[in-house]
Amino acid sequence: MVTLKDVAKEAGVSIATVSCALSGTKPVRPATKNKIMDAVEKLRYVPNAAARSLKSASSKNIGVILPEMKNRFYTEIFDGLSSYLQNHGYFISIAFSNESPDIEQTKIDEFVSQNVAGIVLVTCQPSNASFFRTHILQYEIPLLFLDREAEILPGSFLGFNNYDSAYRITENLIQKGMQDFAVMCGSTDFSTEQEIIRGCSDALAASSRGLNSPRVCITNMTREDAFNGFMRCYSKTIPEVLFASTREIASGIQTAVDYCGFSLPKNMILLSYSGDAWANAYEKNGIFLIPRSTSSLGERAARTLLQNIEAPTLFEPVSTRLPDLLNGKYDLLPLPDHVTRTSIQTGRSEKKLRILAINNPTVNALQFLCSHFTRQTGIEIDIELEYNNLFQRISNSFEDITENYDCYTYDVPWLEYMAQNLCLADITHFVEGSEFSKDHLFPENLRNCRIGDRYYGIPFSGGTQLLFYRRDFFESWELQKEYQRQSSLSLRAPRTWKEYNTIASFFTRAYNPSSPTEFGASLAGALDIELAPEILIRIWAFGGSLWDSYQRPTINTKENYAAFQSILETLPYIPGTPFQSDIKQSVQDFCEGKTAMLITYSEFAQQISSGLKEHSIGRIGTHTLPGDHPASVGWNIGVNPFSPNRDEIFAFLSWLCQWDTSFYLTVLNGASPVTAPYHNYELQKLYPWLSQTEISLSHATRRNTPYQKNRLVLPPKQIEQVLCDVLKRIVNDKLSIKEALEEGQENADHLFKTYGYPTFHRY
Length: 763
Known about the structure:
alpha/beta, 6-stranded mixed sheet
């Protein structure tokens, strides 16, 4: 246990000075007090148990920590809690964890240091019993868990009997002929979610009909993620019955159900756990509510906590679950006798568009939305996915591509090459026409589809590269102090590549045994198409390039030398070699807490945020890249110049860039090139990286290829292969940077000569 003596030693002052500073009994110089408060924060000092017991009788402040402030379920509980406490002469300090364990821990420590009489907690870290014991209970502070029970109970608990209601409702619906059940909920670390799943599962297992366990979809409990979850888990094979653990989840499901052309309860029974409800108001907009008395739970929690505070020697910890307000009469729910799981169809035609597309998050998101376009227009969308060989497939057989597909996605550097080989139609009249609002698109993305003043497609997925970092690490007082001690610098999102490498070293355990994570950085280089941008962002930051304004190769330059030197300095701080991990693996490493920083594309941001929440390991921050020279990335969608379905194609492209489509793409993890989602307050609050993406995009550099009229266009894959081979020769074959750049220059000279470009260069 930390004592005043420990604080005094850390601050380099006397115990008496610490006591004066903390109690305010005597003035202490500001500089000295700052040192003392730094020591208090670092050591997480709170008054000792004996001193607390003397003061607790006079304390009338109760600390309440809830996951968020906008959830009606928690506000209703708080109403009952606060009303009872205030009527009994207590004051309330409220805080919100935002479902982040490190924020929750910080708020608990703050309440303890403020000498609160008791704490009421809806925890987001139920398995962390040791923290609750050492940071609350050892100071003899009464602790009451609400709604979510700790795995090893160190305090009292009050919640609802979600298991019983899930079991009885499932049992009743089985008797009415229902067979296919599903559950959409929050993290299964929470007892509330576990009980719903277990109640439904046990009722299905007990049935004599041998029914399967419910399909379970985990969300972060926001409406947006519930929409996302339904589209991904259930939109193609909807269940007969779906339990939603919160009203927010039910609201997102309802939006998805409407978008897919289904209706409630005709096509699916949606049951939502809720708070207080009017008598017989069990159905709302097709959603059947399972009402629970949230205000009564809050009032009972307050009463239980005060019993503990006012008579601690007589109090015994309690674990109580209240029933729902249906009072066991589940057979009285006005549920339909039969569910027809067929969506509403509009007039379909024989028209079909075939699209060849890269397999990326935006394309994956689009696949869930296309049925909406089909219902609107009668035009069916058939998307064929290609994984890593799309460019090779296109370049190997242009004839095959144009014979079999109406549209195809292409990467930014492929534009000139595909246009020259008659693979892309000039659609300038459509882009600049009155039926298409090009002003809704980011101009940086739209330029990626243009050669001169002609357009050869529209941007399909937008965005740029961002730096993702563990915000909980970077904001940790202890880590900030240690980094300052080691480097004489402030710990922040790095602005330069030198600072990036310094921070990466600090967070790599092999170089800093006290690091909270194994590696400081990552690098995706398993594929040249992913490795090339990793190299280019450093080349551009150091003022280098691959060719000059006369289209002459410039591989072997002092600027490029500095860029490769910077890359080599990064390599000790990444998992494995630079050629082992692809983007998917580097994102997974970051989400699992293996790395402290990640540079990747903005369309992976939501996946990263959800991944961290799934593993309950921290918070992310986003920033522009070190050196501030990201690549303007994303994919375009081009039109086959020989397709007979021009009207249908343009209808699809217009729908793709509509505002509502762009919002749904964003929620489904896509990166829309439409500006509207980036300027929406609700989405900005939910996805804070959107504003950072727009800032980064304004600084982005286009990955293009040398282009001159009357000359063949260099295949972009071959140019980037030259660049990637330089790094491979350095790492794998132990060439010096100078030797590898000289060799790379020779290879570039040969390539440029082959396609009719000049190769005179200056060094």
